[in-house]
Each structure stands twice: as C-alpha cells, then as structure tokens.
Amino acid sequence: MKSQLTTLCYIEKDDCYLMLHRVTKKNDINHDKWIGVGGHFEAGESPEDCLLREVKEETGLVLNSFSFRGIVTFLSDDDPAEYMCLYTSDDFSGNLIECDEGNLEWIKKSDFKNLEHWEGDLIFLDLLEKNEPFFSLKLIYRIGTLKEVVLNGKKIR
User: Fold this and answer.
1) Per-residue pLDDT tens for 46-72?
2) Could you tell me the pTM of the whole model?
3) Which of 27, 151, 4, 154 minimizes the C-alpha distance to 75?
4) Are strands 103-108 and 135-142 parallel, antiparallel or unpaired?
C-alpha cells in the first residue's frame, strides 16, 4: 500500500510555476489536472528525502534550496487521509526531462486558475503567494467537490 504521506513542490521561475499536467497514468485521481511536482514517501524517507527524489525523478531538476511552507491534510470520501508536505523553491539546477506522469510546463501564476485543477489548490497557492507563515490546511472533499476548509484549526468554509 502506498504511504499516506506525500510531498508537493511549487518550483518558481519568472513569475511562473513548473506544473505537471497529469495526462498519462491510468486510474489517476489527478487525471487531466494541473498540479505541482511530488509524490508518495518511500520506506525510510524523510519529507526532504521524498521531495528531492520526486523532483529529480519527475523533472530532472536538483533543488539547491527549498522552503517547507505547510502541511495539507486531504480527506476524501472513505479514502484514508493523505498528509502532504508543501514546499516551494526558486533555487534549482539541471535541465527538464520528459516526465512519465504527464507534461511539464512553466505556467504563469496568474493563469493557473484558468486550468483544470483541484479547488483546494487555489487556497494553498493563495497562502503561498501571500507569504503566509507555516500553515496547516485541511481540505475535505466529497465526491470530488470541496466541502470544508480548515486553516490552522479554524473552519473557514
């Protein structure tokens, strides 16, 4: 069984995020959505180990530095909770590679809202843009629709 611990990184350059358009995997909960780069922890990994491995595997890039910005708890129907460590980085090296999970593209931050994505992603991207100090965000989905949002223990929706 896959770990319920994941990482997600928004790599930034020239007012853009490197986004992954998930179009290639079968039975993908993120199919056709635009997301950041990351994935599930492997045995014995710390959040940073997972982050660095996933970024390298999916993009070919090496993060020279990064910031741990928050933790996002996802609840969806009867699925086990997923706990996602959220990072940003604007300090990286290397060249982009082809990703076997979809297409990588630099997307203007202001254009993201026009793409297919999870509704809750706009909430944590807004927190990142506002430079919110480290935060805990809980997103509760029912049948793919965002029903409840809790930020730092306070219900905001």
Assistant:
1) 999 999 999 999 999 999 999 999 999
2) 0.94
3) 4
4) unpaired
